Amino acid sequence: MKQMSYAAALVDGLYEALASDEKVSIVSGHPVGFGPHRALMDRVYDDFHDRIFDPPNSEAAIAGMGAGAAMLGERPFINLSTSIFSYVGWSQIVNDAPNVHHMSDGMLTAPVVYYGLHGVRGNGAAQHSGSPQAMLWNAPGLQIALPSSPSDVKGLLLWALRSRNPTFFLTHAKLLSIEGPVAEGLYETPFGVAEIKRAGRDVTIIATSLMVVVALQAAETLAKEGVEAEVVDPRTLTPFDEKTLLASVERTGRLVVVDECPLRCGVAAEITATIAEKGFKFLKSPPVRITRPDVPIPFSTPIEDELVPNAAKVVAAVRELLR
Amino acid sequence: MKQMSYAAALVDGLYEALASDEKVSIVSGHPVGFGPHRALMDRVYDDFHDRIFDPPNSEAAIAGMGAGAAMLGERPFINLSTSIFSYVGWSQIVNDAPNVHHMSDGMLTAPVVYYGLHGVRGNGAAQHSGSPQAMLWNAPGLQIALPSSPSDVKGLLLWALRSRNPTFFLTHAKLLSIEGPVAEGLYETPFGVAEIKRAGRDVTIIATSLMVVVALQAAETLAKEGVEAEVVDPRTLTPFDEKTLLASVERTGRLVVVDECPLRCGVAAEITATIAEKGFKFLKSPPVRITRPDVPIPFSTPIEDELVPNAAKVVAAVRELLR
Amino acid sequence: MSSNSNPPLDKSTAQRMAERMLVMRRFEEKTLDLFQRKLIPGMYHLYIGQEAGGSAVLDALGSEDSLLTNHRGHGHVVGRGSDLGRSFSELLGKANGLTGGRGGSVHMCDPERGFLISSAILGSNISLALGAGYAIKRSGEKKVAVVFFGDASLEEGITFEVMNIAAMRKLPVLFALENNNLGAIALHEGGYSASNSVLKQFTRIPELFGVKTVQLLAGDTLASKIAGAREAVDYCRAGNGPVFCELQSVHWPGSNMVFAQMLTGVMDLGMAWGEREPQGEHAGWVRDHDPVLRMAREFIAAGLMSRDELLALDRKVCEEVECAAQFAIDSPLPEPQSAYHHVFA
Amino acid sequence: MSSNSNPPLDKSTAQRMAERMLVMRRFEEKTLDLFQRKLIPGMYHLYIGQEAGGSAVLDALGSEDSLLTNHRGHGHVVGRGSDLGRSFSELLGKANGLTGGRGGSVHMCDPERGFLISSAILGSNISLALGAGYAIKRSGEKKVAVVFFGDASLEEGITFEVMNIAAMRKLPVLFALENNNLGAIALHEGGYSASNSVLKQFTRIPELFGVKTVQLLAGDTLASKIAGAREAVDYCRAGNGPVFCELQSVHWPGSNMVFAQMLTGVMDLGMAWGEREPQGEHAGWVRDHDPVLRMAREFIAAGLMSRDELLALDRKVCEEVECAAQFAIDSPLPEPQSAYHHVFA
Ligand SMILES: Cc1ncc(C[n+]2csc(CCOP(=O)(O)OP(=O)(O)O)c2C)c(N)n1
Ligand SMILES: Cc1ncc(C[n+]2csc(CCOP(=O)(O)OP(=O)(O)O)c2C)c(N)n1
Ligand SMILES: [Mg+2]
Ligand SMILES: [Mg+2]
User: Fold this and answer.
1) C161 touches chain B (CB under 8 A)
2) Which class does domain B195-321 fall in?
């Protein structure tokens, strides 16, 4: 186990994937952006120069290209950069790639990996702060990964690039610099297996991506008050590990869902609905959602901060719940 | 009140809007399709020929054009025909139009009306059977209408074309032929006001669009068994009339949500989550969702039918709930 | 390709072409019949009138090549050699259809013959073909990815993006434009299928990106079309990059409305040699533009096939089609529970 | 527009142009300074090096016209006359910014001056401008909708769709391409901003759709650029349909990386007349291509402005900019609760 940043682990995963599978190639070679992490990609460019294509700004064509190439056995990693640029290729991403297997009666697969940075990245303003995962979750046939730790980002990526199905893989600009232990070499973190990031008996906090970090911070604060929160990270939305989530709520009896999508039909809606439906009898109090409100994200820091879920909001909600 | 079809009421609303407001114009003039209802549009073409533009197949450009024109005071009705063609203009629809008002600090508005037919229309196969409303509901700043009756489709359309905000207006191919009473002339059905389509004391069934018809059929069957279901239609998702929905569940204590979107992060997820959060204490049993499963819609009738919510499934769910 | 300097066709090519075109036509006539008998649910689009260009391209391909089509793809699939019974079964939504009744008319697919799943979203299939070209190029194999699409796809921006990328990477993609726009009736005239662009000469689009173009004009001889298609495919296969091949046809007036109508009845080969005169509303089209009748005339004039050979071939095809249709009619519908299959691999 | 037969400029035009260009430049130099002092959060893109073409177009517009820009829009907004203090305030995210700190650098907007909200999604703003043109055409007024966009937007398919529709409907849209591609460093060379298309002559795109084109080349005189821009705007305003105006500039090397660097220091007008020699890494660009210095040389040579007049104007502009920046620095941040405002009207 080496300590490394989330960005470095992602790049490591990409490197391992390229080194171990001829069929893997990259379209748009800067998955960790053009900022401080850019140089991490140098060794990938050095060793796999001919397997990276930096394409024109043509997200729709590139999205379709990925699905088409995957139908012929390729394993393209399609970097859409800011994930909301996926909206430009939305039809290909939600209405082509995920339908290939079903429409072809199981004869074809389109295991493309779409990639992008989601979320409120800090002064990105309304158009660059979005999180497409809730919308994507309503597209049957598409796998969705939301790694929250350096170890997960590498392992889930390697799993995605070997899976037989199309995947949308989402990272978060504010996760890129966080550090954690990461195993060397090839390993896979399977999709559909939630992880209990922190055990606790009093309340279950379900969160994904950056919100896992927020939830863990909140849990630290709560622990000082004698409240033990369990933080559960589904890690992937499709497939979705209902069992681990329900088991946690069964133990704690209380549910808080923290999510960075807008409220209505956001990821928290689905998680809350699932638990309400299948874990109703476990719930000792109403489930609580802490999400971005249904407001476009403004540019300026104080009004941006106001809208984003943070540890203080989670702590306050849990306190209220346990009152 | 005249008895007329849903399609005729929609066309009537369009006609009234054009006749009463110079700023209204139509982009793509066949909102009721090219089938049996096509001729309904003849009088609109005859009288407002110069206000209808049948554009190239360029959904992205057209979607942006609608938002841009609306910024200068126009009231464009942008027909995307099959609503999933909106995916081709998704970026403009979810990341341009709805952000205009907020990003401009309230100085501008972009009250464009996007229009399309959603849902499982019968042998449309995977790519033409989608329902974008769940995805759209996660886009703050966008109004969403899902009229389920002839009267509503006309009144809501007239409201949308006078509203100061952008709207996505969704109809359903299987609703076009249903008949109902419709008031003549100009009237508006306000957004954000749910309607109790059938009163009942035993269970609340919340449904939108075609699923309201399905829910009403189920309620008829249940009534014969002595079960009185209340069928509530939110009519618009944004704005969303939580109050009427919660009041109904408070009365009945039980909730079934029927929806044609895929399950995960579908419209039923948000409705269920909202009631679970805010109406937890009213619920005597777990909320139940009846939706399309997370499967692409296949072409052939028996496998399509298998996946679509219908009255029998609703009846079965209610019986199970009341057992 | 209006030059007349093409090498003369050989008999076996003529035989293949005649059979392919007859299969396409008879399949579609039967499809219309089945639809009118309410055996085909949903939407469908007929390939009638476009047989010449499509057949020429298909004839130039090898078994290793990849193909994609769009909503109007029956002709391409049966012309590629897919089982007629399973093709009809697909249109009827039967369990033994090409995709088990999942795709239906607009998503015909036959991977065994290189036919990838087709998108019915305008422009999308072109981007999928770009990916097929990307895969082929990476593999280093000398294959070609062909995508058939209609003129309306040239109104979608993605098509321009694809051409740029294909040209940039020299990908082996053959863009086969089915331009059936000649004589089509536009939406605002009460029709449906006419393209809606200020651009009238479609080859100017690939030219913009330096993509080689080949035109198979409606009036060209089949010999010339075959030569043009071969030139296009060979250029692409040799690794020179993409080619744009315009397959022009005179719009079959029966498909001017959304629901096709055969106002002049099924094709009668006798009309090729004056044994019978076309009657009815579309007689002019049949006389002057029907590509199957034109094929018959051309082959007879060139001594490549005789009337009797053509009639015999047609009878064989008609029987196969009839038999295939009956197979489809007799086939079972899919089990409801199978709806849930194949969401994930 | 490389012909030299343009009418000579009059003094008042020269005065306006000089002031506009100096405002653009001094505003951006100060922006970089504020950013380096960590007063500007988030991303921003400087307009340095593009002042000539942009100013020429802005000078040709009337107060009733509509404008849209893209992510690189500071120059357009301050060149249009928006309040400098409120412009800086916007970049700093202050409550009295042009949009109250909601939009920031990439969504500058000033409806009072016809500036509609700008999309930072490549191609989107072009489609919004199509809508502005649609609205103007419907209103029957003799106005123009101008949209500024970069060369990368020509890689997005929507741009092609928009041109087709604008041409078809003869909409009064002026497509102002900010082609800053000369000398730009591409992504694969470690840079960021170079366009990535097989198409090198961008005017071929509008030509494809029959859209009139006007080129303002980097080397053209300002007089020629002004004449070209007026021709474009007048053509559009007269109802002849859209115009595509290429504003070419030599890439300012300071912006080759994502975060701009001013390796040669702020501009010194003395360099226009040899009083001082440019030093540092970008000296060559400053000497040969800096549009503001070129403007100074041209106006002096033509007797339109003297050195002293230019220096005095520059001092005035610098003071205004300084004062505006201080205003922004001193301005309050928005109230957190105001985040919820203006979701719906
Ligand atoms: C993105 C998108 N927009 C609209 C449609 C609806 N549509 C299906 S076929 C068609 C016309 C196609 O015309 P063309 O490409 O010329 O093909 P043809 O039918 O003439 O073969 C349209 C508009 C679609 N399938 N996808
Ligand atoms: C759809 C979309 N894809 C990618 C981006 C990210 N992006 C922002 S600016 C830019 C480059 C723009 O280059 P150009 O248009 O030439 O403008 P310049 O910066 O040179 O003025 C890119 C790729 C975006 N904003 N929108
Ligand atoms: Mg066509
Ligand atoms: Mg540029």
Assistant:
1) no
2) alpha beta
Pocket test for ligand 1, best of C108, C119, C193 (most atoms within 8 A of CB): C193
Return the best residue to mutate from C24, C48, C71 for the ligand 1 pocket (most ligand atoms within 8 A of CB): C71
The token pair at B74 is: 């126009």
State the pairing for strand pair A195-198/A229-233: antiparallel
For chain B, the chains sharing at least 3 beta-carbon pairs closer than 8 angstroms are A, C, D
pLDDT per position as a tens digit, B310-319: 999 999 999 9
Whether B172 is catalytic is: no
Q: Which residues contact D225 (CB under 8 A, 6 or more apart)?
A: D1, D52, D53, D56, D216
Ligand 1 atom showing the smallest separation from residue C195 Cα: 16
Is the shortest distance between the CB of C122 and ligand 1 below 6 Å? yes
**H/E element, B256:** strand B255-262
CATH 3.40.50.920 in chain A: give the residue spans: 195-321
Q: Which residue has the tokens 């920046």?
A: D325
**Chains interfacing with D (3 or more CB pairs < 8 Å):** A, B, C
| Distance from residue C263's CA to the centre of ligand 4 (Å) | 56
Give Cβ neighbours of residue A302 (< 8 Å, ≥ 6 apart).
D333, D334, D335, D336, D339
**What is D11-329's CATH topology?**
Rossmann fold (3.40.50)
Select from B265, B283, B298 the Cβ nearest to the Cβ of A265: B265
Q: Sign of the CA dihedral B154, B156, B158, B160?
A: negative
Which stretches does DSSP call E strand in A119-202? 143-145, 167-172, 179-182, 195-198
| Residues whose Cβ atom is located within 5 A of ion ligand 3 | C 150-151, 180
User: Which candidate, C318, C299, C319, places its Cα nearest to that of C309?
Assistant: C299
> What percent of chain A has pLDDT above 90?
98
Per-residue DSSP letters for D189-258? GT-S-----S---TTHHHHHTT-EEEEE-TTS-HHHHHHHHHHHHHHHHTTS--EEEEEEEEPPGGGSSS
pLDDT in tens, D25-75: 999 999 999 999 999 999 899 999 999 999 999 999 999 999 999 999 999
Residue C229 has pLDDT above 50, yes or no: yes
In chain A, where does the domain assigned CATH 3.40.50.970 lie? 2-182
Interface of D with B in 167-196 (CB under 8 A): 168-169
Tell me, in angstroms, the distance from the centre of ligand 1 to residue D317's CA: 56
Count, residues in chain A: 323
Contact D104, D42 (CB under 8 A): yes
Amino acid at the residue D342: H
How far lies B38's CA from each of A149, B157, D45, in Å?
A: 55, 19, 50
- Tell me if residue A277 falls in helix, strand or coil: helix
Dist. CA A176–CA A11, nearest whole Å: 11
Choosing among 3.40.50.970, 3.40.50.2000, 2.40.180.10, 3.40.50.10240, the CATH entry for A2-182 is 3.40.50.970
pLDDT (0 to 100) of residue B263: 98
Residue D191 has pLDDT above 80, yes or no: no
Domain boundaries, chain C: 11-329
pLDDT confidence tier of residue C281, bands split at 50, 70 and 90: confident
| One-letter identity of residue D326 | Q
What pLDDT digit, counting tens, does each position of B171-203 carry? 999 999 999 999 999 999 999 999 999 999 999
Q: Give the model's confidence band at C3: pLDDT under 50 very low, under 70 low, under 90 confident, else very high.
A: very low
Binding site membership of D251 for ligand 2 (Cβ less than 6 Å): no
Q: Is the CB of C180 under 6 A from ligand 1?
A: yes
Phi-psi region of D81 (alpha: psi -120 to 50; beta: other; left: phi over 0): left
Catalytic residue among B16, B37, B59, B260: B59
How many C-alpha atoms does D339 have within 13 Å on its Cβ side?
21
